[in-house]
């Protein structure tokens, strides 16, 4: 799935959460945590698998729900209580990325390729690790349903503007 789609859907999920739970838009800090969290699984797995050959596939350590759970426990343990909301924003965006990546293999009727969610506890099917990170980014950007995806990104941009463009110094976000 394209990086901008991951970021956009993570933002939508988080802004829905903040509006419903606290009747406010996301803060600047939450915005950046959500954007980082929405890319985190690929930032960990793709370089370590494809460039350095340390991980078995581009969906392993960073895409595992077990890793997300451990990270949340560690972050909650070592960050102060007033950062709990940022840890929650990180968890929502990372787990969202992990689950969204499960949709294409399920659509293709390949449920074995969803096993990465429980890496390294569950055996994994073979993956092609010969791709480069650049291939992935370029291929991701120039592949797929551009019409629908672009419409989704436009909708996210409108919601973000209505929220006061959190994350930008010129916005109203805190
Ligand atoms: Zn991914």
Descriptive overview:
With 174 residues, the protein is mostly helical. The chain has one domain. Helix content is 61%, strand content 0%. It has seven helices and no strands. The radius of gyration is 17 Å and the shape is globular. The mean pLDDT is 90. The structure holds zinc ion.
Give short descriptive properties of this protein:
binds zinc ion, 0% strand, globular, single chain, mainly alpha, 174 residues
Distance between the termini: 30 Å
Give the uncertain stretches in residue-range form.
none
Biggest sheet descriptor = none
Query: Which shape, going by the Cα principal axes?
Result: globular
How many separate helices? 7
Domains (count): 1
Radius of gyration over all CA atoms, rounded: 17 Å
Topology:
Blueprint: H1 3-22, H2 28-51, H3 65-78, H4 84-100, H5 103-107, H6 133-141, H7 146-162
Helix pairs in contact: 1-2, 1-4, 1-7, 2-4, 3-4
The protein binds zinc ion (ZN).
Zinc ion binds at residues 41-42, 63, 97, 101.
């Amino acid at each position: 799935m394209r990086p901008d789609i991951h970021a956009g859907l993570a933002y939508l999920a988080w802004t829905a959460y903040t509006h419903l739970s606290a009747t406010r838009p996301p803060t600047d800090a939450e915005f950046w945590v959500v954007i980082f969290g929405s890319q985190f699984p690929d930032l960990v797995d793709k370089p370590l698998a494809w460039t350095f050959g340390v991980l078995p596939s581009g969906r392993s350590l960073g895409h595992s729900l077990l890793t997300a759970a451990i990270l949340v426990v560690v972050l909650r343990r070592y960050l102060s209580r007033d950062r709990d909301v940022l840890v929650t924003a990180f968890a929502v965006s990372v787990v969202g990325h992990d689950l969204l990546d499960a949709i294409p293999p399920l659509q293709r009727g390949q449920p074995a390729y969803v096993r990465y969610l429980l890496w390294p506890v569950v055996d994994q099917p073979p993956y092609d690790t010969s791709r480069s990170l650049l291939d992935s980014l370029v291929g991701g950007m120039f592949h797929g349903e551009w019409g629908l995806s672009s419409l989704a990104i436009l909708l996210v941009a409108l919601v973000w503007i209505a929220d006061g463009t959190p994350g930008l110094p010129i916005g109203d976000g805190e």
